[in-house]
Specification:
Elements lengths: L2 H20 L7 H28 E5 L14 E5 L2 H4 L7 E4 L10 E4 L8 E4 L2 E4 L2 E2 L12
Antiparallel strand pairs: 1-2, 3-4, 5-6, 6-7
Helix pairs in contact: 1-2
């Protein structure tokens, strides 16, 4: 569910809760009103917590292409930790989600970290060399290696 859809649902629940507060006679019995308020409050609180988590802690991503095969299949869903790179730099081999340069579009990129600042990358005969040494790529099946 997208944050926009969740926000719309929360808005509707909020309006329903406000109606019960402003016009208590909209629900005939006190018991029904009490139960309805409890459910609405629980859903609103859960929705707000979910929005905060989606925006600041964990985001979901859908894998649209096969560029990360065989690690990530097309249509896989990925949970990304939003806090990780605020406290720690990416490391070799990790999968990172990042915003591409504007000329490449607006869809977030999901790629494996092959090098960090200061590393020298060279590709020769389909193999990746980092700082003059062949980069081990255990995530690529032997049948697909050059």
């Amino acid at each position: 569910m997208s944050p926009a859809v969740l926000g719309a649902i929360l808005g509707i629940l909020g309006v329903a809760r406000a109606v019960i507060w402003v016009a208590p006679n909209a629900v005939p019995s006190d018991k029904q009103r009490s139960i309805l308020k409890e459910y609405l409050d629980a859903f609103i609180i859960a929705g707000v917590v979910a929005l905060v988590l989606m925006h600041f802690v964990v985001r979901t991503f859908w894998i649209p292409s096969g560029s990360m095969l065989p690690t990530l299949d097309i249509h896989d869903v990925l949970l990304a930790n939003e806090i990780q790179y605020r406290v720690q730099d990416p490391k070799d081999g990790q999968i990172a989600v990042f915003v591409p340069p504007p000329e490449l579009g607006t869809t977030d990129f999901i790629k494996r970290v092959m090098a960090v600042p200061g590393d020298n990358i060279r590709i020769h005969n389909g193999q990746v060399y980092r700082n003059g040494k062949l980069l081990p790529e255990p995530y690529i099946p032997a049948s697909q290696r050059p």
